[in-house]
Write a structure and sequence with these properties.
This protein is of the alpha+beta class. 42% of the residues lie in helices and 16% in strands.
């Protein structure tokens, strides 16, 4: 969806395109297993909340910077799993949610 800025010029409205390209989390997160492995090699294990299993990515796949959107996505996904009552064998959703919450506070994400 394109955004326009309206300018008043000689009693007529002129549409001028503004540069408001915003990236969503789905655009900057790793999708395939190959991308996830490349991220671990390139940026280290800090980009995942569960690095051994390559789960819960929180970094931008292009820059390696921790994104607030990724942290909130990880926290909400873990919270949803807690709410649904899913019980994995190797890790706890409550710990993942707590970890994401503390990282959000540390990185000053709202």
């Amino acid at each position: 969806m394109k955004r326009f800025k309206y300018l008043l010029c000689y009693n007529k409205y002129i549409m001028k395109r503004t540069n408001t390209k915003k990236y969503r989390w789905r655009d900057i997160k790793p999708h395939t297993l190959r991308e996830r492995k490349n991220m671990i090699k390139r940026y280290g294990s800090r980009c995942y909340l569960l690095p051994k299993q390559l789960k819960y990515p929180v970094c931008n796949k292009y820059t390696g910077k921790i994104e607030c959107v990724g942290l909130s996505a990880a926290q909400s996904r873990a919270a949803l799993s807690v709410y649904r009552g899913l019980k994995p064998k190797t890790y706890s959703y409550k710990k993942i949610r707590r970890l994401a919450k503390t990282l959000r506070k540390k990185n000053k994400c709202l």
